[in-house]
């Protein structure tokens, strides 16, 4: 993990921090459809979160919250999906953080 970023498995406690990032029209136009209400957004992400169980790991293996290491500001999240031997990663970040190389750092 790159020290410039703090990456943590996404939990219900992170949903309120992500709401303002994903509730922006500039961000949501890439997802398609209408910008969700905060309640709709919470319902969607709550359903997407796995039950961490007693063996929860500090490593990101699915959806993770990403913060700037020096300020703690929320950039967005990493969405990782594994299909057999193939892994895909998406970096839905707030538009203020586009073009700064943060997604590349998230792969380190």
Provide the fold topology:
Elements lengths: L4 E5 L5 H8 L2 H4 L9 H11 L14 E6 L5 E10 L2 E5 L11 H5 L2
Antiparallel strand pairs: 1-2, 2-3, 3-4
Helix pairs in contact: 1-3
The biggest beta sheet, please? 4 strands, antiparallel
Which CATH-level-2 architecture? 3-Layer(aba) Sandwich
Instruction: Give the SSE string.
Output: EHHHEEEH
What's the level 1 CATH class? Answer: Alpha Beta
Amount of beta strand: 15-25%
Ends: how far apart? 6 Å
What's the rounded overall pLDDT mean?
A: 77
How would you describe this protein?
With 108 residues, the chain is of the alpha+beta class. The chain is 26% helix and 24% strand. The protein has a single domain, classed as Gcn5-related N-acetyltransferase (GNAT) (Aminopeptidase). The chain has a four-stranded antiparallel sheet. Strand 2 (63-68) and strand 3 (74-83) form a beta hairpin. The protein is globular. The protein starts with a strand and ends with a helix. 16% of the residues are buried. The model is unreliable at 54-59 (pLDDT under 50).
Quick structural gist:
The chain has 108 residues and is of the alpha+beta class.
List keywords for this structure.
26% helix; alpha+beta; 4 strands
